């Protein structure tokens, strides 16, 4: 019936009359198609019977004007760019929709508002959880999703949800969110920049309160230079180092090459900030080296800070914040570069270890001391893996790490790498924030030479306390025995024994001093000397002792001269020690051969004796201090134990070597090899 029609009822339908039509049961029309969808038959054909009867059978026929201009024509959602739809065709679409039950109803206001708010809430749920690059894509996706939802409700459930409000909100949501995010970012940057500027610049190379004049006064004592003048923008002298009255007449600016060199800088001084100029006399600048000028320029450059006015608008404010961020980032990079360069230039090895035992920072020296190529090869490595070959004295790495990381102790230990490298290891806890332990710092110092010096000092003390005291003690015992004994020695015998002990003590002291001199010799003090002449002098010095025992010194020297950089005194003493050692262990009426040859950039002097030889077990330690070759029979003679050590030290100081060939019963052969420079002169 009439009351069962769908749609929104008119609140006052009784006002309608025959002459006045009142609309009721308002609905949204579902059009069957664009204009012309329903079949049209001309009214004249229907009256004349030309139209077939089947066109009207079981059909609802509507009569109306469809020609343009004759009746009502209205634009519809399905008209598109075509002609408007005639009123009679609109009625046909209405009747068709009612017969098929395709009636579109508007969504209730409460549901429409709720769904719109839900769609507008989605961006604020998604945007904070997405990366900025995905936000725009998400915003566009929400727009299409809203349109798709409206179309789905329309076609599947015949419910119309107007998406305009939701689309407008979504379109405004992205720029609004971007603005809020930008504002939050700028506010955060301002806070961080304020905190950064409030923190003390402990690693800055220059203090902002430093006056240029103080630095220039310091540089004057280092470079040195004088005659500089700092002027303000009005030409007044702010600070200067004027050595004569004529310097005060230097103009504020000049183009003359003979007057002064003007260096404008933006300089900060207490109570004043403005453009100042540094002037150096031209003759002074010409006299300074390039390195000195670079040092002055580098110092002045750190005062060159641009003077900026306050920002006048938002754009300038944002640009200023960007510049401040860039400056802060540059300072952080500079700080990290400073730390990295400082670590790289340190002579000691440094490892920064986190609480998980990984290396987070190191220098090349630490890698080298641990047996690796560079710090890159140990980056992010585990500390226990790196120190497998480093043996600690009196502790283990697990105990040491526990003491530092758990008990927060600062430890100092000693360790040794395979070979002779000895290290001092210092472990210190690292706290980046107060009260929180974040790891530790490991310092590695090469103390190989220090430990060697300690051992040599211990050997020296042992030498002084035993070897050197022995002849003196024997001398005192002899004097005491002769004084208390009834059978006193004759004056000649007493003199002979006293002389023996005195010469023995003197020989020990002389050997010790010679070794100390050789160890402290500096290659920079070496000078050009003839090695052939050195060999002849050493043989001549040993001739008397050899002749007294009937030993012949046979020279096989074909070179006339062989010049090299060295210490003639040390080289001659080393050869003399080898000759004396050969004479001491050679039988009487034997011979010692001295040969001199050139061997591939080396000059080699070999001394061959025919004594008992040196056992193989003694050959490995024959060059150690206070070691003596153990001969056999009456030919064994006591020595100081420092002669061959002296020879080894002299060879090493001259970048050479000393070699030993010996067989028991067949004598020994010592060869001293010293390198020749390519420019050295050798003739034969």
Description:
With 684 residues, the chain is an alpha+beta fold. It folds into 6 domains: 2-106, no CATH class; 109-196, no CATH class; 212-301, no CATH class; 346-441, PAS domain (Beta-Lactamase), CATH 3.30.450.20; 452-514, Helix Hairpins (Orthogonal Bundle), CATH 1.10.287; 521-683, Heat Shock Protein 90 (2-Layer Sandwich), CATH 3.30.565. It contains 19 helices and 23 strands. The strands form 6 sheets. Strands 11-10-15-14-13-12 form a 6-stranded antiparallel sheet, sandwiched between helices. The protein has a 5-stranded mixed sheet with strand order 17-19-20-22-21, with helices on one face. A 4-stranded antiparallel sheet has the order 7-6-9-8. α3 (109-126) packs parallel to α5 (164-198), α5 packs across α9 (314-345) and α15 runs parallel beside α19 (643-653). It is rod-shaped and about 175 Å long. Residues 244-275 and 632-638 have low confidence and may be disordered.
In short:
With 684 residues, the protein is α+β, with helices and mostly antiparallel strands. Helix content is 43%, strand content 18%.
């Amino acid at each position: 019936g009439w009351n069962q029609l769908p749609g929104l009822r008119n609140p006052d339908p009784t006002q309608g009359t025959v002459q006045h039509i009142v609309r009721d049961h308002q609905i949204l029309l579902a059009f069957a198609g664009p204009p012309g969808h329903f079949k049209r038959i001309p009214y004249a054909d229907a009256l004349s019977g030309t139209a077939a009867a089947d066109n009207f059978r079981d059909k609802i026929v509507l009569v109306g004007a469809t020609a343009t201009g004759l009746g009502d024509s209205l634009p519809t959602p399905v008209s598109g760019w075509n002609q408007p739809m005639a009123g009679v065709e609109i009625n046909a679409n209405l009747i068709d929709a009612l017969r098929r039950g395709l009636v579109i109803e508007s969504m209730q206001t409460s549901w429409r508002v709720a769904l719109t708010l839900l769609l507008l809430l989605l961006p604020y749920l998604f945007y904070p959880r997405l990366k900025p690059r995905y936000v725009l894509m998400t915003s566009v996706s929400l727009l299409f999703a809203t349109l798709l939802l409206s179309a789905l409700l329309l076609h599947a459930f015949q419910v119309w949800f107007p998406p305009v409000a939701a689309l407008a909100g979504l379109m405004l949501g992205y720029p609004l969110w971007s603005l809020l995010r930008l504002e939050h970012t700028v506010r955060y940057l301002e806070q961080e920049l304020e905190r950064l500027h409030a923190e003390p610049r402990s690693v800055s190379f220059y203090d902002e309160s430093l006056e240029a004049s103080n630095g220039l006064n310091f540089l004057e004592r280092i470079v040195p230079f004088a005659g500089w003048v700092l002027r303000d923008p009005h030409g007044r002298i702010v600070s200067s180092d004027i050595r004569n009255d004529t310097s005060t007449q230097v103009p504020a600016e000049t183009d003359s090459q003979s007057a002064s060199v003007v260096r404008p800088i933006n300089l900060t001084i207490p109570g004043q900030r403005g453009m100042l100029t540094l002037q150096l006399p031209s003759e002074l600048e010409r006299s300074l080296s390039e390195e000195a000028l670079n040092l002055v320029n580098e110092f002045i450059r750190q005062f060159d800070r641009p003077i900026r006015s306050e920002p006048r608008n938002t754009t300038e404010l944002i640009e200023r914040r960007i510049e401040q961020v860039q400056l802060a980032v540059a300072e952080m990079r500079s700080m990290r570069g400073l730390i990295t360069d400082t670590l790289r230039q340190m002579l000691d090895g440094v490892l920064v270890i986190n609480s998980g035992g990984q290396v987070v920072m190191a220098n090349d020296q630490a890698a080298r001391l641990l047996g690796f190529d560079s710090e890159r090869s140990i980056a992010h490595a585990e500390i226990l893996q790196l120190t497998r070959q480093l043996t600690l004295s009196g502790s283990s790495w697990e105990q040491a790490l526990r003491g530092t990381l758990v008990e927060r102790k600062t430890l100092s230990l000693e360790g040794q790498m395979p070979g002779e490298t000895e290290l001092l290891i210092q472990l210190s806890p690292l706290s980046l924030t107060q009260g929180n332990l974040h790891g530790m710092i490991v310092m590695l110092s090469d103390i190989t030479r220090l430990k060697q010096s300690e051992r040599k000092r211990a050997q020296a003390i042992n030498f002084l306390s035993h070897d050197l005291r022995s002849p003196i003690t024997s001398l005192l015992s002899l004097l005491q025995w002769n004084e208390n004994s009834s059978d006193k020695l004759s004056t000649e015998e007493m003199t002979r024994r006293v002389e023996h002990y005195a010469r023995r003590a003197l020989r020990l002291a002389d050997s010790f001093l010679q070794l100390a001199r050789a160890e402290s010799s500096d290659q920079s003090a070496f000078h050009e000397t003839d090695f052939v002449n050195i060999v002849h002098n050493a043989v001549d010095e040993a001739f008397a002792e050899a002749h007294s025992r009937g030993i012949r010194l046979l020279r096989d020297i074909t070179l006339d001269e062989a010049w090299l950089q060295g210490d003639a005194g040390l080289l001659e003493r080393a050869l003399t020690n080898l000759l004396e050692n050969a004479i001491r262990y050679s039988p009487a009426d034997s011979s010692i051969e001295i040969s001199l040859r050139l061997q591939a950039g080396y000059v080699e002097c070999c001394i061959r004796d025919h004594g008992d030889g040196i056992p193989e077990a003694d050959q490995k330690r024959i060059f150690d201090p206070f070691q003596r070759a153990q001969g056999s029979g009456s030919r064994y003679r006591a020595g100081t134990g420092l002669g061959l050590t002296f020879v080894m030290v002299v060879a090493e100081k001259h970048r050479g070597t000393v070699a030993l060939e010996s067989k028991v019963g067949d004598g020994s052969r010592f060869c001293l090899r010293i390198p020749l420079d390519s420019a050295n002169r050798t003739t034969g």
